[in-house]
Write a structure and sequence with these properties.
oxidoreductase; binds flavin mononucleotide; FMN; alpha/beta; 317 residues; TIM Barrel; single chain; Aldolase_TIM; three-stranded antiparallel sheet; NMO
Length: 317
């Protein structure tokens, strides 16, 4: 499965950059691909024009394969994003789809020669996505930064259950931030891993310096969930603004009433301005494993070295 994944994506290491709203720009995607992983330009938090510009930056900054992430539900009309992705199909290696029903989109991208990765958070949705034709499944556990599946299944429980019921490669996402996580994911039946929070705190990431430092200082218990009162679960750093959101949620607001507090602009303020008094920033529980702000190349080479060391250690147990 790992070999199949590496061939499908044309990469050296089974390490992917997740779609990262506001953060996953062309420079970061190229840095991940240049380091032997699979970078993805994120569509969330960008205008259509900026999404195109970031794809162009990635094209200019790497000759290694990279892809794009399309969170369907984040866009009122995803069709113009689909057209844009198809326009650049000869430069892209794969598309990942999240936050919505992937079924109508899978054949469109595959017809253009682009393998499709679908983000799922339960074994049932994994089977559905495979039946719909997904080439790769990204199984994301509840430890992950950002929007999580409402069933709140953890990575450790999710990966083996998904791997047992599908025959396409499975990528583990959520809580992986070092080489031990990579080896554990492979042991659980994954073919590779997808990183989110670890890549936010890197030199090449456009996240505000204060946001990066908050991740470095945070431990797993310094994240919390917002939006649960309206049936969504979103993992963010604990901070003054988030306290206000949680207080408001205790009044059981409707989704429409809560929206002004949790809309993308509030995430932009937290992530790009580093202002956690007036906005929020995503982080997974793996923040407790992050102690520095290295380059992306360092993150990936260290992760590979740590994984090799962990594999050498296992037979001695
Ligand atoms: C800052 C940030 C933004 C994210 N934005 C998206 C997104 O736009 N689309 C998506 O599919 N997933 C998104 N995610 C989830 C990641 O792609 C990834 O699956 C997740 O972060 C993995 O868990 P980790 O944070 O523990 O590494 C985001 C995560 C973070 C931390």
């Amino acid at each position: 499965m790992k070999q199949r994944l590496l061939e499908l994506l044309g990469v050296e290491h089974p390490i992917l950059e997740g779609g990262l709203a506001y953060i996953g720009d062309g420079r970061l995607a190229a840095a991940v691909s240049n380091a032997g992983g699979f970078g993805q330009v994120g569509s969330a938090g960008r205008s259509l024009e900026d999404f195109e510009k970031q794809i162009q930056i990635a094209i200019e900054s790497t000759n290694k394969p990279f892809g794009v992430n399309l969170p369907i539900g984040e866009h009122s009309d995803p069709s113009e994003r689909v057209e844009l992705i198809l326009k650049y199909k000869q430069h892209l290696r794969a598309v990942s789809i999240s936050a919505g029903n992937p079924r109508p989109f899978i054949p469109v991208f595959q017809a253009a020669g682009l393998p499709v990765m679908v983000v799922i958070s339960t074994a049932m949705h994994a089977q559905k996505a495979e039946q719909a034709g997904a080439d790769i499944l990204i199984a994301e556990g509840y430890e992950a930064g950002g929007h999580n599946g409402p069933s709140e299944v953890t990575t450790f429980a999710l990966i083996p259950q998904v791997a047992s019921c599908v025959s396409v490669p499975v990528i583990a996402a959520g809580g992986v931030a070092d080489g031990r996580g990579l080896v554990a994911a492979l042991a659980l039946g994954a073919a590779g891993v997808q990183l989110g929070t670890r890549l936010v705190a890197t030199v090449e990431s456009p996240a505000h310096e204060d946001y990066k430092q908050k991740i470095v200082a945070a431990r797993a218990e310094d994240t919390t969930m917002i939006e649960r009162s309206v049936g969504r679960v979103t993992r963010v750093l604990k901070a003054p603004y988030v306290n206000g959101v949680l207080t408001f949620e205790r009044t059981f607001p409707s989704s429409d009433e809560l929206y002004p507090l949790v809309k993308g602009e509030k995430n932009r303020i937290g992530a790009l301005e580093g202002d956690l008094e007036h906005g929020f920033a995503y982080s997974g529980q793996g923040c407790g494993l992050i102690h520095s702000i290295p380059t992306v190349a360092d993150v990936i080479s260290t992760m590979v070295e740590e994984a090799r060391a962990a594999l050498r250690h296992l037979p001695t147990l």
